[in-house]
Amino acid sequence: MAGKLEKIALKPVNVAMGVAAGAVAGMVFKKVWKLASGDDDAPDAGDESRGWGEVLIAAALQGAIFAVVKAAVHRGSAAGTKRLTGHWPD
């Protein structure tokens, strides 16, 4: 029963961590894109004036940053849960 209760109690924390991770990843991507391209805004796939290469590189970079931040937050949350509860979350 404690396992179910822990899962229910941790659900809102996990949701909040996911939202925060998305916000952090977005900020990191904006800074990296500005450093890499010198442009304030990343290209939008629907922007006719941007080339295929630029759009696809921006998308790949954004995806990589989001994946790394998500993995770091997920791993950190699991480690924190283990410290609090004594076992790794399922």
Structural class comes to: mainly alpha
SSE series: HH
The chain-level mean pLDDT equals 89
Largest sheet: none
**Tally of discrete structural domains:** 1
Number of strands: 0
Bulk shape: elongated
Range of strand content: under 5%
Q: Rounded to an integer, what's the Rg over CA atoms?
A: 18 Å
Sequence stretches where pLDDT stays below 50 over 5 or more residues: none
In DSSP terms (H or I, runs of 4 or more residues), the helix count works out at 2
Determine the N-to-C terminus distance.
Answer: 14 Å
Fraction of residues in H or I helices: over 70%
Walk me through what this model shows.
Helix content is 78%, strand content 0%. The protein has 90 residues and is an all-alpha fold. Helix 1 (2-37) runs antiparallel to helix 2. The chain starts with a helix and ends in a 5-residue tail after the last helix.
Question: How would the blueprint of this fold be written?
Answer:
Blueprint: H1 2-37, H2 52-85
Helix pairs in contact: 1-2
Give a quick summary of the entry.
This protein has one domain (16-79). It is an all-alpha fold and 90 residues long.
Keywords:
90 residues, mainly alpha, 2 helices
